[in-house]
Amino acid sequence: MTTVSEKQVQAAKRNVKKAQAAARQKRTIANLPQSTRRGLTEQARKGRARGGKAGHALEDRNREQLYEIAKEENIRGRSKMGKWELIDAIRASR
Question: According to the model, what pLDDT value does residue 88 have?
């Protein structure tokens, strides 16, 4: 049997605290401002109304659909862009 040293216990506690702090800082929907959450809800509602199919306007498309368009147009840095940045980049490339 192995025994756990005091140093190992302290290191484990530090790691747990770091992981908890990182989890609190993540941008989850619950941590977003109310106005942003409301906007995401509106976008989701529009998507369901279209049956999940992309609309004609770029604003009607979700981020994944915009990412595919940006990929086809070979826009650099697209993986780090959000929805509205992708829309701006696609319009700039056209």
Answer: 92
